[in-house]
Amino acid sequence: MMNAALPFSELCRLTRITHDNSIELTSLIPSLFAGIFPKEPILSNSTLFAIGTYTDVKGHAPFASGEGIKIISLSEEDGSFREIEVLRDLKNPSYLDWDPRAGYLYAITENEDGHGQIQAYSLSEEKRFQKRSSVTGPAVAGCHLAGNYPENTIYATSYMNGTLRAYELKNGDPGKSLFSLNFQGNGPNMDRQISSHAHQVMILRQSPFFYVCDLGSDKIWMGRQSEEPPRIGCALTVPEGYGPRHLAFDPNGEYAYILCELIPRILVVKIDQSAGFMEIFEDLPTVVSSLHSISAPAAVKVHPSGHSLAVSNRFDDSITIFHIIRERGKVSLEFHSNFSSQGKTPRDITFSPGGAWLLIANQDSSDVQFKSFKKESGLPAPGWAKPLNMGTPVCIVALN
């Protein structure tokens, strides 16, 4: 109940007379109750997830209708969810990263007419997000970011400019730029590889190295985290025209899985622990050969069990699962299955921390699907949970 009555003049301002002379409350009334009715509670035995979206129509997002960053609570037991809140103050928060120690969420905005921004949010004890500081993004079309949080550094990449920029973190807030690097190179695909396109930056934990997937030059660049600016070297050149988009590290830290977009392949590479260089051990298709021209893989994630690997294939609208084989200290992949994403243009995917669900962000059908998985084996289980309908999801991060 409200403790004080509204003055008559204020009540008149918040009402209007309809055509049949009845009194109707205006849209301003809900704001009066904004602290009275609680937001959706968080489910027990659940994990929070943050989901980034495209809010503006683009050539590669023709149906964009996102609202910002949506926060949901997902039950590990049955895949049910609750929508907690929406952070509506950003345009095109296309990639997110989470610092579990400090409880900070970071978003990079993808803008093609400016450098965009990196925005920080802190998670309160009441499990609500509070907006913190922001800094100018790395360059045009910022597309990825990753934090070396023990060292108070966050890295971000620009697709259009082929740029990597590092920022200092002070008490969780992004601050001054530590360095900015522009990569050089090209590839044989004249539509997509005229110049460098830094698509992802990844930190190899318990290692001195970071890595950048450069779709435009067919290279994986590397640098040492301790250097400012770092001396950049080429860790790997992939086969011509493959266009490396994203990579995921194996839990043992000795191997990585490189997902290529322009030719839908997954590469298993071994990492030299002292020098950082990579060597290709396997080169496998993510879809059957007849679909190579339309697939355009987007994301690659390792199951929490370490026993399987998932890949999203856009335009083929499918998910491919590989079984990870470990023998005598070596790692290899074995195709297990391929299934529909239950929507259009599956972009990002991520496993729930307990491994019971794969979350699939279907960009162009504006939904997030929840596919059941076996926790121990990391392989698909029968069934799907109820989907989440929301505008243009493109990134999913577990806040665990």
SS content category: mainly beta
Largest sheet: 5 strands, antiparallel
**Topology-level CATH name:** Methylamine Dehydrogenase, Chain H
Gyration radius (Cα, Å) is 23 Å
Stretches where pLDDT is under 50 for at least 5 consecutive residues are 1-38
The separation of the N and C termini measures 36 Å
Q: What is the global morphology?
A: globular
List the total number of helices. Answer: 2
How much of the residues is beta strand, in percent?
over 45%
As for the number of domains, it is 1
**Range of helix content:** under 10%
The CATH level-2 architecture is identified as: 7 Propeller
Characteristic terms for this protein:
400 residues, mainly beta, Methylamine Dehydrogenase, Chain H, 5-stranded antiparallel β-sheet, 4-stranded antiparallel β-sheet
